Amino acid sequence: MSNNLEFDIVENSFEWLSAQRIQSVKGLSSTLSAHALWELPNPYITRLILEQDNDGSWNSSIRDTARACSALSTEGIVFTASARWLLARKKENFWNRDVYDTAYALAALADMGIQDKDGCDWLFENYCPAWEQVGTTSLIITALKKQDSLAKTRTFETFIQEKARWILSKKRLDGGWIHISTSNLAIQALLLAGFKDDVEDSVHWLLENVHENGAWGNKDDDINATALTLSTLGFYKKT
């Protein structure tokens, strides 16, 4: 991320995002995170907070609440009511017995400075062929790595490295993993796991697949895919 063309792409993409009517919590969260990673003025903070319910959640949804909490944490904002809401919905060692809800919740809690080893153990111990997909495994790596880093341990490091190498083995020759959003999840997980050199071609693949108007998407322009890509590029630049 050094030449003028790359920064022109990023600038054009942020201009495209600013012209969109972003109403979903998922879209607001990813757009907020992208602005934070590029250290840009962030009007999406207020917009996301205004969507919060009185109980501290967003839409009474584990994933929306986790996404919002992770996004706000990039700007140093943590709501204790939101953390309590997430923790109150943990049953046994998981959220809804669902790999996605659990991974998003664990990542968000780590972003808010809250350790939860039991939830990490559940992800690790229940990893199975049904979860062995690039996007799913990337989310698991992200959750475990964030929790390990917060606890200053390497409890899941062997697992993380093994699964990161598996994700790399699924990368196509052009540097991507077919879908834009899946590729972003993979690159972000691999950056967290310490594989920056191995995703240089993937970053170039992202830049090569931007639409003429500055958006990203598998076919149509997509707000979340665009914001996710900008976050990935910003994270790569900072790593």
Short description:
With 239 residues, the chain is mainly α. It is 62% helix and 0% strand. Helix 2 runs antiparallel to helix 3 (44-50), helix 2 (25-37) packs parallel to helix 4 and helix 8 packs antiparallel against helix 9 (157-169).
Residue fraction in strands: under 5%
Q: Measured on Cα atoms, how large is the radius of gyration?
A: 17 Å
Give the biggest beta sheet: none
* CATH fold title: Glycosyltransferase
Report the principal-axis shape.
globular
Query: Percent of residues in helical segments?
Result: 55-70%
Count of extended strands:
0
Supply the number of helical segments.
Answer: 12
Report the CATH C-level class. Answer: Mainly Alpha
- CATH architecture name: Alpha/alpha barrel
Instruction: Give the structural class.
Output: mainly alpha
Order of helices and strands: HHHHHHHHHHHH
Spans of at least 5 consecutive residues with low confidence: none
Overall pLDDT level? 97
How would you sum up this structure, described in words?
This protein is 62% helix and 0% strand. With 239 residues, the protein is mainly α. The protein has a single domain (1-238), classed as Glycosyltransferase (Alpha/alpha barrel), CATH 1.50.10. It is globular.
Which tags fit this structure?
239 residues; mainly alpha; Glycosyltransferase; 12 helices; globular; Squalene cyclase C-terminal domain-containing protein; Terpenoid_cyclase/PrenylTrfase
